[in-house]
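Researcher: We're reviewing a set of sequences before deciding which ones to prioritize for further study. For each one, I'd like a predicted 3D structure that I can look through quickly. This is Flavin prenyltransferase UbiX. If possible, include the structure in token form so it fits the rest of the review sheet.
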Amino acid sequence: MKKRIIIGLSGASAVIYGIRTLEHLRALPEIETHLILSQGARVTIPIETRYTCQEVEQLADVAYREDNMAAAVSSGSFRTDGMMVIPCSMKSLSGIANSYADNLLVRAADVCLKEKRKLILAVRETPLHKGHLELMLKAADLGALILPPTPAFYHHPESIEDILDQTIGKALDYFEIEHSLFKRWGEKSEGRSSSD
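Model: Here's the predicted structure for Flavin prenyltransferase UbiX, in token form for your review sheet.
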């Protein structure tokens, strides 16, 4: 049986994280992706990337409108392996943390929490004020994994894609999806020993 993952793209900056996640998952026949683009994401995608919203939707197996509250992913009886909101805006975080499901992205995340399914929130804002931090703590208390797109450099990234893929790889690890998107800590690099 295929692993079924919901991908939510909010209007936060760095929407390329969600797009690249879809590209990687599309290459895995054992994964079925269900995409929700928020209205904010529809504004951000053409501003920040070379993609159209239609091209992004075509990367998923199924795509839903944010206002389609009757979509399959709005019900706990529709079984999924969980959801990634990548990137997650503070507005979406607030809706999720406070169970204010006024759109499908927040409703699908709320379903994951109530059904005890995996939920990643790749929160994207800086600097953070106390309200942002309290919302992240509240979401974590409800069962979400807070995974900010924070770059690491131990794998010696050579491109922006390498930096993106390290965060995406961490998200795929949480869903137990095999990948080789980055070199893990302790793995030897060409020309370098692990003790360098």
